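STRUCTURE:
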């Protein structure tokens, strides 16, 4: 590999955290970037180096969060700022969520068509900006709270007839007993018939 005298390589040596924690953070960020469809290994490695360098400069969390959690938060923070910078002229209220940006990025097929543009500090390719802004989802009308008045369920005519019949049977207990015995005789007759035909 031929390096000119002007090329410099920054060596990343964290002064806090264990090597295992930094390796775990590296893997988490790499998997996160893979989930964002950043398929270029070279670009992914550059981004991971930048993200971990920023985490190392910030220092450990006062809340005691894991190093991998800090790395993912830093990745999301960088992505949100990058999406806001990229999409700002089309913003109505100047705010973009991380989800809005990721959806727009995937809809325009950005990771495959412009593999080195993601989280880049360089100027955005004009076609990329145009596609991203065209892919931005426009929200529908604002949510309005509405009141729904409960109504009685209409079951039709059958429950009314059944209710009237049961009411009549309750008034005449002898008739109720006769109907019950008649239904039981019909049931036994059907069972008897079925047992003979098997």
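SEQUENCE:
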């Amino acid at each position: 590999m031929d390096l000119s005298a002007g090329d410099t390589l920054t060596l990343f040596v964290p002064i806090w955290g264990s090597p295992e924690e930094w390796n775990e953070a590296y893997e988490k960020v790499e998997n996160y970037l893979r989930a964002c469809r950043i398929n270029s290994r070279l670009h992914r490695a550059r981004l991971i180096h930048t993200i971990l360098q920023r985490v190392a400069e910030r220092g450990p969390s006062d809340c005691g969060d894991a190093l991998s959690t800090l790395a993912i938060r830093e990745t999301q923070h960088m992505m949100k700022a990058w999406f806001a910078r990229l999409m700002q002229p089309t913003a109505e209220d100047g705010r973009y969520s991380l989800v809005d940006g990721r959806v727009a990025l995937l809809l325009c097929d950005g990771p495959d068509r412009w593999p080195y543009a993601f989280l880049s500090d360089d100027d955005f390719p004009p076609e990329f900006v145009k596609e991203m802004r065209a892919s931005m989802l426009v929200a529908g009308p604002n949510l309005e709270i509405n009141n729904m008045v409960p109504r009685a369920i209409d079951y039709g005519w059958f429950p009314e007839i059944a209710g009237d019949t049961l009411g009549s049977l309750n008034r005449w207990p002898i008739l109720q007993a006769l109907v019950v015995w008649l239904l039981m005789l019909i049931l036994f007759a059907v069972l008897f018939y079925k047992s003979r035909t098997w």
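REMARK: The chain has two domains: 19-135, 167-197.
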